């Protein structure tokens, strides 16, 4: 058995690892594993869904709060210009605002719960694979994806990266969003068209963004998003807590134990 986190497990590795029977991926999704090659070599691939959900959900709320207080700009300016930072930068509460979720699986559901029950936010969600009856009453499932972009003060992405979702958030979506709205992405960088996002941010089509994940990781120093005052970026730290790592390790070990 093999436990992996980020490395790519390619056809070449399956060919070389003649005794390999099972791979457990330390986290959600099967990123980096060539699933066709696994199938061909009769290797079972497991993951640890849900092990890091609460960590990612907490981080999503952190990013929403960070955006709501314009905190990157406040932090950058307050020593030199105390009153600008305190009085002139735009700041809002989360309370009473609308949170729109794209994807309402493990992480999206937890974000919805904290936002609705903790911050009194209105929560709407778009997810074509979830039924209304499966959701608690504080989440309004909408059939129209555009509504999430047009009606929300915060749009948060919780979808897997696949052929339907890669590059699925671009200029059309940003134009639908309110000028005062923020985009939060803790899912996968590839779902966003980053050039379109940069344009939307610079042209004031949306108020700001918080990106835990980017198309290129580690981030390049040339990425222009790094230098915008209304964009927060981070090195994919959603699952990087001690608790999430411990749970993912345990789930991987349990999965392998079950397999054998
Ligand atoms: P999940 O499988 O529980 O939920 C994903 C949801 O997306 C599902 O309900 C599915 O029906 C929905 N979905 C699929 N295609 C969709 C579409 N086209 N439009 C709308 N909804 C769609 O997964 P999860 O554990 O909640 O993870 C969500 C995302 O977060 C994944 O991309 C995962 O890789 C990512 N993630 C990031 C970190 C991090 O460190 N930032 C950590 C863990 C997971």
Provide an overview of this structure.
By secondary structure, the chain is of the alpha/beta class. The chain has 10 helices and 10 strands. The chain has helices at residues 11-16, 35-40, 53-68, 71-77, 82-88, 106-119, 145-151, 171-176, 194-202, 242-259; strands spanning 2-4, 22-25, 44-47, 98-102, 122-126, 139-141, 154-157, 182-185, 208-211, 231-233. The strands form 2 sheets. It has a 7-stranded parallel β-sheet, sandwiched between helices. Helix 3 (53-68) crosses helix 6 and helix 4 (71-77) runs antiparallel to helix 5. The longest helix is centred in the C-terminal third of the chain and has 18 residues, at 242-259. The chain is globular. Residues 27-29, 49, 52-53, 56, 102-108, 126-130, 158-161, 164-165, 186-188, 212-213, 236, 238-239 line the site of nicotinamide-adenine-dinucleotide.
Task: Give the structure's gist in a few sentences.
This protein has ten helices and ten strands. By secondary structure, it is an alpha/beta fold. The N and C termini lie close together (9 Å).
Describe how the helices and strands are arranged.
Layout: E1 2-4, H1 11-16, E2 22-25, H2 35-40, E3 44-47, H3 53-68, H4 71-77, H5 82-88, E4 98-102, H6 106-119, E5 122-126, E6 139-141, H7 145-151, E7 154-157, H8 171-176, E8 182-185, H9 194-202, E9 208-211, E10 231-233, H10 242-259
Parallel strand pairs: 1-2, 2-3, 4-5, 4-7, 5-6, 7-8, 8-9, 9-10
Bound molecules: nicotinamide-adenine-dinucleotide (NAD).
